[in-house]
Amino acid sequence: MTAQSFESVSTWRQGAPPPASEARSALIDRLASRLVAIRPGRVRAVVDGRTASGKTTLADELAVAVRALGRPTLRATFDDFKKPWRDAREKGYDRTSGEGYYRNAPDIESARRLLLEPAGPHGSGIVALCGHDPLTGEDHRTTTIDAPLDAVLIVDSVFGMRPEYDELWDLRVWVDVPVEVALARGVARDADMEGGADAAERLHLDRYHASEEIYVAEVDPVQRADVVIDNTDVGAPDIVRW
């Protein structure tokens, strides 16, 4: 019997990943085994990395592998835990520059109180997997699930290893790719949505790349990570740190 999967109610979705290579599947299975071995009770993991590094795909694959080992999974993304645009306008939050995006966009309080703390081994188990829908702005903070006692929470995120979250993770995974690879992937992914490759490149350079440079300089997530995976070649990812 397949273990249960709990998913965010957000309308923001990434397409299903292509079938994984044998080498990639072996790495994912190894990571899943390490994750479930942490404890029989609830476990929380973050899959962090630059925008378009492949962290969401890896987190989705990891959740499938964890369920194959008999553990239920909770899947969330910090894209669903950002302050709504209405707050940005009313309160003067700058979310368009790199500095503003890093400092102002994350709803750290909701992510801690509604997601990470209750999903922990000593938490209530009453977990909200989405704060605000990033596309519609709808408030889902009261939409909760009752997490099983052996559930594994897997969160994909940029900025996931900020100090404000640090003590709430049981495993920290950094998905590493060169900056230029992340940029090329992000532009290709977002060109249609942003109205062309030039607009998508400006968005990534001015907001995402700029904010990530602040994050890397201040937090050094690579050094905080328990596991570092080089995802430059998605068919043959390489473990840099285990």
Automatic annotation (TrEMBL):
Gene Ontology MF term list: kinase activity
Key word Plastid present: no
Keywords from the named record: Kinase, Transferase
Superkingdom of source: Bacteria
SUPFAM superfamilies per record: P-loop containing nucleoside triphosphate hydrolases
Region (Disordered): 1-23
Polar residues bias: start-end ranges: 1-13
Classification via InterPro entries: P-loop_NTPase
UniProt key word Kinase: yes
Name used for this protein in its record: Uridine kinase
